[in-house]
């Protein structure tokens, strides 16, 4: 029973109590935070690290065991397109958006007319394997990565899998 809130995410989130949400979803939004894209709705200032600040706020707001679902543009290089969007690569996605979360699931899928090789199709979605996604250097349209992450407290739960922090799902 939360009212709809419009405004700068990190500013609004500061007024909320920690550990109160079971899940937070950010679909095609975090890549715009702090770049001036949402000026009309209260994006307060240009801050190239606002995506990191937002991730920290999301972590603070989630209950232990809570899930964070996110989609952002993805490719071989980290790109900041002026005051519009970021495209993440593996390293920057881990450093900027995974942070203290552990990854339960990640999938890469194509935007319309993306030229990379399709690994498989499910419904209307064309998925791409991770190696192809990591190598994709195309311009718009881009690939998108979906990640399901979890807030886990304590040690011994997460492990390293390549460069991704991975998590054994709860039983």
Give a short summary of the structure:
By secondary structure, the protein is an alpha+beta fold.
Task: Give the biggest sheet.
Answer: 6 strands, mixed
Radius of gyration, taken over Cα atoms and rounded to an integer in Å: 16 Å
Structural class designation = alpha+beta
State the helicity in percent bands: 10-25%
* Intertermini distance: 29 Å
- Biggest β-sheet: strands ordered side by side in the sheet: 1-2-8-5-7-6
Number of helices: 4
What is the N-to-C succession of helices and strands? HEHEEEHEEEHEEE
**Strand composition percent:** 25-35%
Q: How many distinct beta strands?
A: 10
What does this protein look like?
β3 (79-81) and β4 form a beta hairpin. This protein is α+β, with helices and mostly antiparallel strands and 171 residues long. The model is unreliable at 155-163 and 167-171 (pLDDT under 50). 19% of the residues lie in helices and 34% in strands. It contains four helices and ten strands; from the N terminus they run αβαβββαβββαβββ. The strands form three sheets. Strands 1-2-8-5-7-6 form a six-stranded mixed sheet. The longest helix has 12 residues, at 50-61.
């Amino acid at each position: 029973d939360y009212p709809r809130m419009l405004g700068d995410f990190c500013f609004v989130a500061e007024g909320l109590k920690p550990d109160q949400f079971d899940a937070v979803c950010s679909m095609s939004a975090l890549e715009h935070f702090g770049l001036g894209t949402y000026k009309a709705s209260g994006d307060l200032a240009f801050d190239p690290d606002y995506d990191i600040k937002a991730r920290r706020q999301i972590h603070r707001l989630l209950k232990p065991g809570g899930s964070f679902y996110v989609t952002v543009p993805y490719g071989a290089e980290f790109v900041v397109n002026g005051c519009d969007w970021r495209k993440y690569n593996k390293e920057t996605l881990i450093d900027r958006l995974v942070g203290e979360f552990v990854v339960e699931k990640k999938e890469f899928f194509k935007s319309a007319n993306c030229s990379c090789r399709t690994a498989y199709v499910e419904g209307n979605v064309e998925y791409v394997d991770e190696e192809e996604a990591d190598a994709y250097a195309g311009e718009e349209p881009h690939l998108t990565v979906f990640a399901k992450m979890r807030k886990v407290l304590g040690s011994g739960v997460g492990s390293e899998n390549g460069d991704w922090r991975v998590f054994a799902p709860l039983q």
